[in-house]
Design goal:
Chain B: This protein is an auxiliary protein of DNA polymerase delta and is involved in the control of eukaryotic DNA replication by increasing the polymerase's processivity during elongation of the leading strand. Chain B: One of its GO terms (cellular component) is PCNA complex. Chain B: It is found in: Nucleus. The structure holds two protein chains of two kinds. Chain A is of the alpha/beta class. In chain A, about 40% of the residues lie in helices and about 15% in strands. In chain A, strands 1-4-3-2-5-6 form a six-stranded mixed sheet. The radius of gyration of chain A is 28 Å and the shape is elongated. Chain A contains 14 helices and seven strands. Chain B has two domains: about 120 residues, Proliferating Cell Nuclear Antigen (Box), CATH 3.70.10; about 130 residues, Proliferating Cell Nuclear Antigen (Box), CATH 3.70.10.10. Chain B is an alpha+beta fold. Classes of the chains: A alpha/beta, B alpha+beta.
């Protein structure tokens, strides 16, 4: 930890960091996320569960007052988990962070994101980080439960949980910066109420492009989200064809995957968020379930007690015109 | 030519409101003896049988037996256009595909006419044999309505037990259970308030409350209701319409599977 912190003192140039990052990437391909995922291989890789991955906090974050950034990746897509990322470092290191190149993950190429992730791991003595992976199955369950929990509420609660986790460790928080979910004002109010003004909380629109620490959080989230999708282990014992794509419904690969992998009986595997209208529409093409009406099952028909009676003749208006109802 | 005038037109309204939840489309059979109707609900669990004597109407003219196929919903809509003290004339002819409903105010100052198109309805007609019932309960109709309504708060069906001591209504569901017992009471001041039980044999039967609550919509037609029970036979819920006719509902009993029997009879 301390060593990592020291090395942060030396300023990277752009070139240095990309070369070094790439080398690390190749040698430590699994390590990048291995750190996040080391205890979650194979069987534990059951995507029905949420994962909370918080590497140890840098010592310096207990001593110095810290700035915290929170952002998410994968709110919109129909496939895969939603990932929340949190990053924190001493307020005094804010400038260092900016010089390292942390910015909005959406504006960075995947390779650049991986590099920055690598830098973050190298800088473990200065930058603390964590992610929470909310499985698509969990999101489906929330959205389709009898008491529905919408995605905004899930998001808010996740952010609250992550901040609380840092507090429990004793991280010295002075400011939390978040990207907004829903209305920024009311979100800020909700968070302030939750933490009773122990530290400053600011909710911003596009916080990930305004603040490097939120950008760093968005990179954590995005890298893990992409990794989850690329390495998805299907619990269902079925070979699914073609690429998942980005998981967004606008992605032609995702569209093709959804159209090509619909089982008429079993629907979709758990990677799909069933609460999405895209998914519901696709599922209309699958076989529908007919529920037998139980109530009338134990009630015998009244005809079974009485014999046939004399049927009255139809009205002459119909009989004279040979009008009959179709059988 | 068919024509029937009922002075107390509101009676029609009450009758239609009583049956419309059970039978949707039915043939109204008009003959020299009066007007009758028989129909089943869509799931064929309940049956309605209505008869109004020709005496009830003045004038009543029926040259030839005629069957008028009408939807209860539409009939109810039309009759809601009449005022309570209007007289109601029903008129049609063999050649017409319409039935006219003519409402005349008591002072004869307002006359409204509504024509309903006839429908050709293929209805099954059941022969209901006369039979000897095990037990016949006569009680105030509003009391029966109340019991059915209250018990449907608890469960979907009611178990009715008639014994020499009285009649007991029981219902149970996920929130709990309810039990209402009535003792025979023949000393009430008002004859309409008495509970009278004729018992040949004790019976224990279960019925769907959903239907009983439909039937008791007829409560305003008669102060008394007659419940006729026979083991493994349909229940008859009968309302006498003054001295001019009757409205009877038949409801098939529920068959209890062995599981529920075990839980209802103590070991």
């Amino acid at each position: 930890m301390a060593a990592g912190y020291d090395s942060a003192e030396s300023n990277y140039t752009d070139d240095e960091c990309s070369t070094q990052g790439r080398d690390e990437l190749i040698s430590n391909q699994t390590n990048i996320l291995g750190e996040f995922y080391k205890n979650h291989r194979e069987e534990e890789y059951n995507r029905g569960h949420n994962l909370e991955l918080f590497p140890e906090s840098p010592d310096v974050t207990f001593k110095e007052s810290c700035i915290v950034g929170i952002d998410e990746a994968g709110r919109g897509p129909v496939l895969g988990p939603m990932v929340y990322g949190i990053c924190y470092c001493p307020v005094s290191k804010t400038d260092t962070l900016a010089s390292l190149g942390f910015a909005d993950s959406k504006e960075l190429k995947p390779s650049k994101r991986d590099t920055l992730m690598q830098i973050m791991i190298q800088q473990s003595g200065m930058i603390g980080r964590g992610v929470e992976v909310l499985s698509p199955n969990y999101i489906s369950n929330c959205m389709l439960a009898r008491d529905k929990i919408n995605l905004n509420v899930i998001s808010h609660n996740t952010a609250i949980r992550m901040i609380r986790r840092l507090l429990e460790r004793g991280v010295n928080i002075s400011l939390v910066l978040l990207d907004t979910v829903g209305d920024a004002k009311s979100y800020e109010k909700k968070l302030n109420k939750e933490f009773e003004g122990k530290f400053k909380i600011e909710v911003h629109i596009k916080a990930d492009s305004k603040f490097p620490i939120v950008g760093a959080a968005s990179i954590c989230a995005k890298v893990v989200r992409d990794w989850c999708l690329d390495n998805w282990v299907f619990k269902e014992n079925v070979n699914f064809t073609s690429k998942l794509g980005s998981g967004y419904t606008g992605d032609p690969n995702t569209k093709a995957w959804l159209s090509g992998n619909l089982d008429k009986v079993f629907g979709y595997p758990n990677i799909v968020r069933f609460g999405w209208s895209t998914c519901r529409k696709k599922l209309e093409k699958a076989y529908q379930v007919e529920w037998e009406d139980e109530e009338d099952n134990d009630n015998p028909k009244i005809e079974s007690f009485f014999g046939k009676g004399k049927v009255a003749k139809s009205h002459p208006f119909f009989t004279e015109r040979f009008l009959e109802n179709p059988k | 030519m068919f024509e029937a005038r009922l002075l107390n037109g509101s009676l029609w309204k009450k009758i239609i409101e009583s049956i419309k939840d059970v039978v949707e489309d039915a043939n109204w059979e008009c003959s020299g003896s009066g007007i009758s109707l028989q129909g089943m609900d869509s799931s064929h669990v309940a049956l309605v049988s209505l008869h109004l004597k020709s005496d009830a109407f003045d004038p009543y003219r029926c040259d030839r037996n005629i069957s008028l196929g009408l939807s209860s919903t539409n009939l109810s809509k039309i009759l809601k256009c009449s005022s309570n003290d209007d007289s109601v004339i029903i008129r049609t002819s063999e050649a017409s595909d319409n039935v006219s409903f003519i409402f005349e105010s008591s002072n004869s100052e307002k006359v409204s006419q509504f024509d309903l198109k006839l429908m050709n309805i293929d209805s099954e007609h059941l022969g209901i044999p006369d039979m000897e019932y095990d037990s016949i309960v006569k009680m105030p109709s509003n009391e029966f309505q109340r019991i059915c309504r209250d018990l449907s708060l608890l469960g979907e069906s009611v178990q009715i037990a008639c014994t020499k001591d009285g009649v007991q209504f029981t219902s149970s569901g996920s929130i709990g259970s309810g039990k209402i017992s009535l003792r025979p009471n023949i000393t009430a001041e008002n004859l309409d308030d008495t509970v009278n039980i004729e018992l040949n044999e004790a019976v224990l039967l279960t019925f769907a409350l959903r239907y009983l609550n439909f039937f008791t919509k007829a409560t305003s037609l008669a102060p008394r209701v007659i419940l006729s029970f026979k083991t493994e036979h349909p229940l008859v819920v009968e309302y006498q319409i003054q001295d001019i006719g009757y409205l009877k509902f038949y409801l098939a009993p529920k068959i209890e599977d062995d599981d529920t029997k075990q839980t209802t009879t103590p070991d």
